[in-house]
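Its record is quoted verbatim for completeness.
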Amino acid sequence: MVAIGYTIMGEQAGPKQLVADAVRAEEVGFDFLAASDHYSPWLAEQGHSPYTWSVLGAVSQATERIELMTYVTCPTMRYHPAVVAQKAATIQLLSDGRFTLGLGAGENLNEHVVGRAWPPVDVRHEMLVESLEIIRPLLQGETVTFRGTHLSTEGAKLWDLPDEAPRIGLAVSGPRSCQLAGKYADAMIAVQPEADLGAQFDAAGGGGKPRIGQVGLSYDPDEAVATKRALEQFRWFTGGWDVMAELPGPRHFASASQSVREEDIADQVPCGPDVARHVAAVQQFVDAGFTHVAVVQIGGDTQSAFFDWARAELLPELRRLG
C-alpha cells in the first residue's frame, strides 16, 4: 500500500500554523509530513517562508507517530553540509527516529541570498556529491576532514547522534541526479510521475528503495474558487524545473508566469470537490512505481476545510491505491 503524506508548505503559512497543521495531519491519519525548506516563497501572493528546521523541531515535539522529512534541503550554499548533518541528527533525536533528510541540488530562489553566484547544473551536482561525502560519515559518527573542489570541512564531529542515522532521500529530475540517488541515497524524491526516473534509480543501485513523490491539489466546494486560487498561488511551477531552478526571486516567477491561464492550471492541478480527480493525480505516481506520495493543499487559509474533507473523502479513497 502506498504511504500518503501531507506537505507543510512554508511558502504559504507561518510557523505556528505549520505546527498546528502537522498535528492535524497526524490526527486525520496521514502517514508522513513533507516540509519545504525555502528562504523565499515562489510568489508574493503566497506570503510566507519561516525557518523550516525550527518548525520541524516544534513538530517533532507536537506529534507522536507521523514520519517527518525535508522536501528538500540544499546542502551546498545557504547551509554548509556539516551544519545540515547536525540539524538532521538533532531532528532524528527529537523525533525518536522518524526523520528522513531529503536533499537536492537547490534553486537560485533560495541559495542566492548568501551572496554567491548561482552555479551551472553540472557544478551543482558536483557540489551535491561533495556535500554527501561530508554528511554521510558525520551521521555515522566519524570525525570528518574533507577538502573538495567546492566544499571542505576540518575535523567536524557530531556530538549528539541518534542510535540510527536518518535516512537520506535525494531529489531527481534526470539521468545524472538518478545516478547520484542510486549511489548515495536511501530513497528517491521526484515531483514528476515518471517511471523512467525509477528505472534509472534502480539501474544506479536504488532497487527496492522508496520513491517519494508530491502532488499539488486545490480542494474547495466551489471548483471556480479552487481554480482561481491555484492560478494565483501555484502558477510558478508551470515553466518546468529548468526554469524553476534558475529564477532568483518571486517577482521573476510572477513575470515568467503572467500568461498562465486558469485552464492551464486546471490541466495540471486537480481543482474542486470531485475526489476522483484528486485520486487520479495521486494514482499517476502509484502507476509510475512511487511508494510514498505527499499532497499539497494550495492556499494557506484553506487547510482546516481540507483536513475535514480529507478525513471524510480523500484518505479513504487513497487507501485503496496500490
